[in-house]
Amino acid sequence: DLVQRRLHSGTSWPNSASPQWFKRGDGTARFQFHSAKVGDAFHASRMIDYNEDWLFSTIFRLDGSVALRSTLFAFPAAMFSLLLMYLDDFVEDFRENLGIAMLASSQIWNASTVVLVFLLGFRARQGLARFWEGTGLLHQMRGEWFDTVSNCVTFSISARPSKPDEVMRFRHTLVRLMSLCHGSALEEISGDVAELRVIDVMGLDAPTLHHLWECSEVHQFNRVEVCLHLLQTLITKALDDGVLKIPPPILSRVYQTISRGFVNLLNTKKITDTKFPYPFAQIIALFLLLHLIMSPALITASVPHKVFAPILTFLAVFSMFALNFISIELENPFGLDANDLPLTHFHSESPEDTVAVCAFQGAVRPFGPGTPEVAGLTNPKLHLTCEVEEGPTHQIA
């Protein structure tokens, strides 16, 4: 059928914004997400790793900095203040005629500055809260789905001697589906992630791949929800077939971890779907504009010096715009910006990559110092004995 022809030929789906399956020449496979921006090689961002031991290396780093954007507003304001100083020298009663002297003696500028600082502080707190909530939810999602895979692999140990093929098939399918689910979740919340690799999707059978493609491309279903449904179906079938030899009340924990991980994902999407309220953004933009216009005039009236007045004007405008741009950077922590969360790094450390070793090489059962296996050791506290399903007991110093 169409899916098998696409997979065996190694070609991709025609929709460049959809998930793609690729078959490489070495026989391995890759599941790839394409950015909507065709022709650009985007990759998920990795958060800036910086060191504060050297002050100047931190100050003059441009990657991820808002200093340049803030300077685009602060520098013209400083030049305007310098222009006003020279106009004072050449035009008599220049400030009195424009009413700048009267404004300098009033509290209008001070009051507007206080309101602007309050609004910017509120936005910065909200942005930082959204940023930390986003990274916390990603780690919680990863932890819940790690428990799902780890518990399923552990619950299948008892059935390994009697049904080795069924157990290995279950584990391989479980790991692949969870890897696909985790990658789809990160792609969904980012929107612009170019490529996320997952564990060997070609290991899934053609009907499963066709079902995933049909749900995503034809019916426009959510890929994560489809993968989670397939996972729960797989686990239920494994329980009926005796692959998971565990009482149903204990197995219910697996369904709970799947559900809690998905709830964390939905809470993460709450951040991406809900922007900072527009009325606040509008008022902040208005006060920033007033601050940009009034600061040169009022600072030059208070500090009539051709050197210090432009410097103070630059600092006053720069600080306000920088704080606003920082808040904007933090409000949506998922994307491709330098200050966004490192989604590729999160996915490379996703739970299925860790449990895959256990799924392919066999579960390891540790023994403590009090067991007969280590009774003859001189100092059992310094040793650990592990039993691997496929091989003999190994002693690790």
UniProtKB/TrEMBL annotation:
The lineage of its organism: Eukaryota, Sar, Alveolata, Dinophyceae, Suessiales. The keyword Translocase does not apply. GO terms for molecular function: chloride channel activity. Pfam families: Bestrophin_2. The chain crosses the membrane at residues 66-87, 99-122, 278-301, 307-326. GO terms for cellular component: membrane. This is Voltage-dependent anion channel-forming protein alr2987. It is found in: Membrane. Keywords: Ion transport, Membrane, Transmembrane, Transmembrane helix, Transport. It comes from the Eukaryota.
